[in-house]
Every structure is written in C-alpha cells, then in structure tokens.
Task: structure prediction
Amino acid sequence: MECPECGSDNVEVIKERGRQITLRCLDCGNVWQITLPKTVKVPLIVSEHEKSYKTVAELPEGEEIRVGDIVEIEEGDIRITGIELEGMRRVEKAVIGDIKTLWGENISFPAVFGVSIYLKDGVTQSFKVKADREEEFATGEVIEVGGYTFKIERIRTENGTIKRGIAKADEIKRLMGHAIRGKARRKLEIYRGHKR
Result:
C-alpha cells in the first residue's frame, strides 16, 4: 500500500476493524483509512513439481483474474496456470465469483527443466536440473551438468525454440547442446525430487 500524500510504501497499520483499516505513513505522518474488499474462498490446486495438493485462495470478490497472475497463499506465491468455470470449461480470464477451480504452480520453488547433451555416436544424455527462476541462460554459453560440459545450442521455452538469445529459467522447458571439452562458466544442480 502506498501513502496517497507522498507515495511512500513505508506505512504501518494502526487500527483494524473488520475490513476497515487505518494506516499511517512513517515518512510524512499522513493517516488514512481503506476498506478491504470482500473475499471469496476459491478452490486452488497447487503444483510443486511432481507433487500437487488442494487448498483455497481468499480472493477479492468481483475482481478479474487471468492465467499468469500471482496470488499469495500461506504456502507461498502461486502463479495461476488454469481457470475452470462450471461445466469444466477452461478460460484464460474470469471474474472471481464465477470460478469453480484455479490451478497454479508454487513459484517459491526453483524452476525445474530438462537438459539434453548430445554425445558422440548419436547418444543423448538427459538430466532434470533446477535453477533460480530469475537466472538467465544464453545460447552459446558453456554449462556443466552431471560431469558433462556442453555448449547451449537451443533453448526450448513455453513459446517455442530459441536458436539465438536468452531465456529465464522460469520460461525454460529444455536446454540442448553438444558435449565439448573446455571449462564451464557455471554448473547446474541435478533435480532429485520434491522437497518442501
């Protein structure tokens, strides 16, 4: 929340009464009130890599939510990956009161994606690795995984394959390239399963 006087987000709650909240700006001293919107409990299925569980998200009634939006629940920040209405109809956006179920992935967990390293004689060595979601990977970069050093030649993302360029780990489905001799710029950790 930002102060309506000076725009600072350095604020504190000084009083709560139901949905009515009184705030004070710690920079300019301005005091103001806001009324929080009514919330609706919406069923939410959260994916944490190969594990999923059911929970609920308390969301503001009447507001619109889209695939790709982030919602906060006790377990972490959840990126919405699917919206279902009555009749099992999937949509890209909907008003919160109309939603039957939401699907999402916990983005508090690292990104997990595949790596394909092409060896001699047509052999391919594959791994699942994990990386910070904001970490960037570029074609031409030299990486080490599981004792193999390889040069990234292609990056498969949710939107297609990149032959030249950069992608964040959060968007990557697979890194592909040939094994080479040489020193890697960095080493990726092999993903060994879900851990909370």
Observations:
- The two ends are 30 Å apart (CA to CA).
